[in-house]
Amino acid sequence: AFDLVLARSGKQFRVEPGETILEVLRRDGMNLEWSCCDGVCGTCEQVVLEGVPDHRDAVLSPEERQANSHMMICVSRALTPSLTLDL
Ligand code: FES
């Protein structure tokens, strides 16, 4: 599990092992774009401000992964205890 912080709203969430960032945010009522929920379409891409994502998608190139600046929130998780998104 890891903590998720939304920079613009200041909201904080806990993402447990069996759930995704996208699920947690949709449950809170956020109107986010998504499509495949499988890490292949790129629709759910979000900007990462702090923390290191655990990239599990098939969209980003190796260079984009290393940049730690974007992530697919339908499948990717966190390598750091906390992630901050530009939401
Ligand atoms: Fe398709 Fe996340 S919804 S990559």
From TrEMBL:
Residues 2-87 form the 2Fe-2S ferredoxin-type domain. Transmembrane segments: none annotated. Signal peptide: none annotated. This is Ferredoxin.
